[in-house]
Amino acid sequence: MKVKEPVITIDGASGTGKGVVSQLLAKQLGWKLLDSGALYRVLALAAQKHGVALENEPALKVLAEFLDVQFIATEMGRPPKILLEGQDVTDTIRTEKMGNAASKVGALPEVRTALLSRQRAFREAPGLVTDGRDMGTVVFPDAELKIFLTASPEERANRRHNQLKEKGINVNLGDLILELKERDQRDRERAVAPLKPAEDAICIDTDKLTIDQVVERIMSEVRKIFPSLHTVKE
Ligand code: C5P
Question: Are 19 and 131 in contact (CB under 8 A)?
């Protein structure tokens, strides 16, 4: 029987810090990284590019199956460059508009099924850290360690606001809170793979923790599961 590579899943709503926590964790462990939200964002962008409506499930399913997306590794622990049909879309997919569009296509069951094997293909030696909404519940239910991050809506909106500002994207904080709530509601209430912790997930409230503290908290769980694990030095 083929031995499966170990997986750590980091799920949670947007603004809980799961993206940066996953990057730092993958870097410390020297493991692969999958930002599953990026796949949904790229699919939403592809739909826009090809004039496919965000409600057209059969067409989106086909688009998802044939999606020409590449994740090009840059520096270890840094987000990869993302190409859609050969074109660099790394920054284009990060707007709130694309986040919202991604959550619309992500609510369609056939789209989610079409993206399953693509996500599972990221499971490679020596291991995978992956972040999303349903990594622990649906995509990698047999993951060795499942983490679910939470934070208050205000804290999450503030973090998103700062992240976007750093990228030179200016948005109104009030609008951001409203958009976050709308996206959250859709992600939590959808019929398939809703945002929720797996039964065996460890929940961490990140409101009063720094990113490094969250990573250290997760690393303490990692060390319990893999006592002889070697981490990558800076
Ligand atoms: O994590 P990120 O904000 O990039 O995700 C964008 C949207 O993609 C989410 O709001 C969610 O609706 C969808 N998504 C999903 N399942 C995942 C990751 C993201 O449905 N595993």
Answer: yes
